[in-house]
Design a protein that fits this description.
Blueprint (H helix, E strand, L loop, with lengths): L17 H65 L2 H4 L3 H12 L4 E6 L4 E4 L14 H10 L3 E2 L3 E2 L6 E11 L2 E10 L1 H9 L7 E6 L5 E4 L3 H4 L18 E4 L5 E8 L6 E7 H52 L12 H57 L5 H23 L4 E3 H9 L9 E4 L4 E3 H20 L9 E11 L2 E11 L12 H13 L3 E7 L2 E9 L11
Parallel strand pairs: 13-15
Antiparallel strand pairs: 1-2, 1-6, 3-5, 4-5, 5-6, 7-8, 7-11, 9-10, 10-11, 12-14, 15-16, 16-18, 17-18
Length: about 575
């Protein structure tokens, strides 16, 4: 026989402690708030960045406006000087004095004829001016356009430093006769940048039409005359903020513009690291808030779950006590639903206690009734036996009388056996032991073997009668009639159609040769027909020469735990 185990039940859903459920519940409540907070924080960051970009553009616009106002003022001053009577009369010494007084110590004025010869230069005393101009490009442009010109950076022959000219034509009729210029030092332009009052991490830069730095709010002495890279001039992106690397090698947010009056370029930038630091700071703050919220939720869940888990443990203890039929009293908790469950368990315990008492009383009454019925059945069988003795003594042979008495005793034996089991079912091994007990002599001639199995009450009565008949026949004609004879009784349990069945085999060995009976007697009919009907199975009886073999197949009454199947 082989052992087979029933398939294990499918695993249920994974369970988690109450603390975990509360922690997840708290996080689920906090997550929407955290999401809203995240949206607010990033919206604030975006607004802050947009505000920074707007300020960059505003500072740039202010720089360009201030620069153009200053240049317009210079042009106005030059146009006023161009109408001087001294200039019209070509009284150069007087004009030199007049222009010097008009400037009041600011910058200097240069008057150049169209041949490039300097006539007046207020930077030096009259008569000491250089012979030719150091800015021939401006002279050429005025000759071509007849309009004011704002020069690129060049090195002055008098100042001997990089300077800039704001120049206007002095007309004689419709053609320029002279060029009147106001010389500006880079510090003059830088003063406009200083008036913006930019913060330390902000930088303003101005360059001429060639892209050469002419003014800078920071480190002018280092970058004066440097060429601005094309990407920093923001070509194609006028007055829009973009990321770039400035002349200091720093990543910046920058906006650029070109003056429509002078053609000079201007830029304002702010360190991108500052904006990025704001983003990182906000992200770190948000991460810290999320972490603290999560920790607070877990801590709160842990704190709140202590009372809940204690109450659940008390309810579990009460349920276990109910299953063990022990008294239970669960202490009250702060969870009303658990209190209701505990009270329900207590009511169930009281109901079960009453039911068990009533069942015990019913079982006692049932046992008493069964015993009374068994007693009366034995009396009835004894009465039947007495009547049979008186009736059959005169008419029936002794052999018939003995067979009839044996069958009555077998019925009485099965009745006694089933009475102890409340006429429910009986153990097959015990049935076999009781049935063969009257036929076991001094030498044990029976070999028994089989698993523990129970059979229905009706099958038990029929099996006792069948074994009685087999023992009787074996004693008269078979293996039990010889001291050397043996009888092997074995049974096995197997499954068919999802239900347990028993196969029992009676086999006689080492007895006298067996011959099949000429006709079927009462005992054979009892075994093959009546017994087969009562056990709800089949019976096969074979009278082989070396010994009788009887095979019975019938259902079991349920398998004990750990039963093995063939």
């Amino acid at each position: 026989m082989t052992n087979t185990r029933p398939a294990s039940a499918p695993a249920g859903r994974r369970a988690f402690p109450a603390r975990t459920h509360l922690a997840v519940f708290g996080l689920c409540l906090a997550l929407p708030l955290l999401a809203a907070l995240s949206g607010f924080v990033f919206s604030s960051i975006r607004q802050e960045r947009l505000s920074t970009e707007r300020r960059v553009v505003q500072e740039l616009n202010q720089l360009v406006d201030s620069l153009e106002r200053d240049l317009e003022r210079h042009v106005t001053l030059l146009n006023t000087l161009a109408t001087s009577s001294f200039l019209q009369e070509e009284d150069w010494r007087a004009f030199h004095a007049q222009a010097t007084n008009a400037l009041q110590g600011r910058s200097y004025v240069v008057l150049v004829d169209m041949a490039g010869r300097q006539i007046v230069n207020t930077y030096v005393p009259y008569g000491q001016e250089p012979q030719t101009t150091g800015d021939p490009d401006t002279l050429r442009r005025i000759a071509e356009t007849g309009r004011p010109v704002f020069s690129n950076l060049f090195t002055s022959k008098v100042v001997r430093r990089p300077v800039l000219n704001v120049s206007v034509p002095v007309l004689r009729g419709e053609r320029p006769a002279y060029v009147l210029s106001l010389g500006l030092l880079p510090e003059d332009i830088a003063g406009i940048l200083t008036s913006l009052h930019l913060e330390p991490d902000w930088v303003a830069t101005v360059w001429d039409a060639n892209g050469t730095v002419i003014a800078r709010s920071r480190y002018l002495d280092r970058f004066l005359g440097s060429l601005i890279p094309a990407e920093l001039r923001g070509q194609g992106r006028p007055r829009t903020v973009f990321r770039a690397t400035n002349l200091d090698g720093q990543r910046v947010l920058q906006a650029v513009a070109t003056s429509g009056l002078s053609g000079w370029g201007a830029a304002v930038n702010v360190s991108a690291e500052k904006v990025d630091r704001q983003l990182l700071s906000a992200a770190a703050w948000l991460a810290g808030t999320v972490l603290l919220t999560a920790l607070a939720g877990v801590a709160l869940a842990w704190s709140m779950s202590r009372g809940l888990t204690r109450a659940l443990a008390d309810t579990e203890t009460a349920a276990l006590a109910l299953g063990r039929n022990q008294s239970l009293r669960a202490p009250p908790s702060r969870v009303s639903e658990l209190n209701e469950v505990n009270r329900a368990l207590e009511r169930a315990h009281d109901d079960l206690t009453r039911d068990r008492a009533a069942l015990a009383e019913t079982d006692a009454q049932k046992t008493m009734i069964i015993r009374e019925l068994n007693h009366r059945m034995r009396n009835m069988l004894t009465l039947v036996q007495s009547i049979a003795e008186l009736t059959m003594a005169a008419y029936a042979p002794r052999e018939v009388t003995a067979g009839f008495y044996g069958r009555l005793k077998a019925l009485a034996l099965s009745s006694d056996l089933l009475t102890t089991e409340s006429w429910d079912s009986a153990d097959l091994g015990e049935i076999v032991d009781k049935a063969i007990a009257p036929h076991v002599g001094a030498s044990l001639q029976f070999d028994l073997g089989g698993p523990a199995v129970r059979i229905p009450a009706k099958a038990a009565v029929a099996l006792v009668l069948a074994l009685h008949e087999l023992c009787t026949n074996a004693t008269k004609y078979g293996a039990l009639s010889s001291p050397a004879g043996r009888v092997k009784i074995g049974w096995a349990l197997y499954q068919e159609g999802g239900r347990g069945r028993v196969k029992l085999r009676w086999q006689e060995m080492l007895g006298p040769p067996v011959a099949a009976p000429a006709r079927e007697g009462l005992g054979t009919a009892l075994i093959t027909q009546a017994v087969a009907h009562d056990i709800s199975g089949s019976v096969e009886l074979v009278h082989a020469p070396d010994g009788t073999v009887c095979t019975m197949d019938f259902p079991s009454a349920g398998e004990p735990p750990g039963a093995s199947f063939q």
